[in-house]
């Protein structure tokens, strides 16, 4: 299999420097190789419209700001670093769990929208999607913190890709619960931490409440909740959930990630497994074992 990090540097530069009438067409062409990200969506997805709704960089404002940010990404060798990190992580994972049938993976790195207050504020300028096997998408603003965590961010999303490989854990929309989502985030962080250290490997939004017992206890009460439309508040927190039309449940931003790290760490400590070895372990077993240890 091959991991391909798309050359979005060339594509984004072309969009941002083109005549206004040409920008939407160029953006659509750049996004087309990642269309598979949306293969489970009903109907045909408008790639440009979805780009705008998901905090992708604007092409009608903030042009100089985005060009400067693009130059920062290039100077940081972002694309090359992601490629090396994913290749190394896949080697580490396949060494721990043999027989993985890994397909080719396409990686889409995009600048985020510096004018999107939710993205720049509560999401700390970075989002990722590794839930669709064969595709990884990372949208970020190149702050020093996000650049330092670039490899770990990519590895986190790779872990999601590999957990849900055919023959691995099945994400059944009709039955999946918050517990599976939380465990998947904890395992992805644990895998990233095992390769890049605790400081860089944790998802940033989960760090502030890592040791908050009240937040942890609240998340635990929602682990059995089903209905994917309900997951955002339990995992990402009320503010992000409300922005996407979901019902708040009384949790701060990143609550599910902080609980996820505690749950998975307790499980790994109890079993002696590495994060890579636990790739396909059952979420209910992980949660039960962790809670027996006190979380």
Overall description:
The chain has 295 residues and is α/β, with parallel strands linked by helices. The chain folds into two domains: 168 residues, no CATH class; 123 residues, no CATH class. It is built from 15 helices and four strands. Strands 1-2-4-3 form a four-stranded mixed β-sheet. Helix 1 packs antiparallel against helix 4, helix 9 packs across helix 14 and helix 14 packs across helix 15. The model has no long low-confidence stretch (mean pLDDT 96).
Summed up, what is this model?
The protein is α/β, with parallel strands linked by helices and 295 residues long. Helix content is 52%, strand content 7%. The longest helix is centred in the first third of the chain and has 19 residues, at 78-96.
Strand-helix topology:
Elements: E1 3-5, H1 8-17, H2 20-31, H3 47-53, H4 63-75, H5 78-96, E2 105-111, H6 117-120, E3 126-129, E4 135-140, H7 144-148, H8 150-163, H9 178-196, H10 198-201, H11 213-221, H12 231-235, H13 238-243, H14 255-271, H15 283-292
Parallel strand pairs: 1-2, 2-4
Antiparallel strand pairs: 3-4
Helix pairs in contact: 1-2, 1-4, 5-8, 8-9, 9-14, 9-15, 11-14, 14-15
